[in-house]
């Protein structure tokens, strides 16, 4: 969110809170002035306590809103990075597929991570359902080149 939106949000919350505080003060002033049983001191303390409670609640609401906005922004940034990364991966895969006879993905143990029809065709092997998936890639390399 931009700074102007945050400033507008905070100013609107403050304005609403002040209007509410003024309304509460007028209601208590009218109700308590009619009944002379309550002196001026406790009435002011009661209104002041309510105002401070409302200020605290408003402050907490602003903090929660800021934290939620930061969370949403962080999640949106992560989603965008993921999409860009996926687009880059697809572009590189297309480039390699166009330039190379065969492209394979290997696991950390140097085994084929995905089936490879192109490798099967390149090696003139019969097509199997898995197309060498899980096979050790080293076995496809000549023993002289395995160093």
Could you give a quick summary of the protein structure above?
This protein is mainly alpha-helical and 147 residues long.
Structure, described:
By secondary structure, this protein is mostly helical. The protein is built from 3 helices and no strands. α1 packs antiparallel against α2. The longest helix is centred in the middle third of the chain and has 60 residues, at 40-99. The model has no long low-confidence stretch (mean pLDDT 77).
Annotation keywords:
3 helices; mainly alpha; 67% helix; single chain
Number of strands: 0
User: Percent of residues in helical segments?
Assistant: 55-70%
Query: What does the oligomeric state look like here?
Result: single chain
Shape: rod-shaped
SSE string, helix = H, strand = E?
Answer: HHH
Task: List low-confidence stretches.
Answer: none
Helices and strands, with pairings:
Layout: H1 3-34, H2 40-99, H3 117-122
Helix pairs in contact: 1-2
């Amino acid at each position: 969110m931009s700074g102007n939106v945050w400033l507008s949000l905070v100013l609107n919350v403050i304005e609403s809170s002040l209007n509410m505080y003024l309304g509460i003060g007028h209601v208590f002033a009218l109700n308590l002035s009619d009944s002379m049983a309550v002196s001026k001191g406790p009435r002011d303390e009661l209104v002041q306590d309510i105002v401070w409670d409302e200020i605290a609640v408003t402050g907490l609401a602003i903090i929660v809103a800021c934290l939620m906005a930061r969370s949403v922004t962080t999640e949106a940034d992560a989603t965008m990075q993921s999409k860009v990364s996926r687009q880059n991966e697809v572009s590189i895969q297309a480039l390699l597929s166009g330039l190379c006879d065969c492209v394979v993905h290997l696991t950390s143990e140097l085994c084929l991570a995905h089936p490879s029809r192109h490798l099967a065709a390149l090696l003139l092997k019969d097509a199997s359902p898995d197309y060498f998936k899980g096979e050790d890639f080293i076995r496809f390399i000549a023993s002289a080149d395995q160093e």
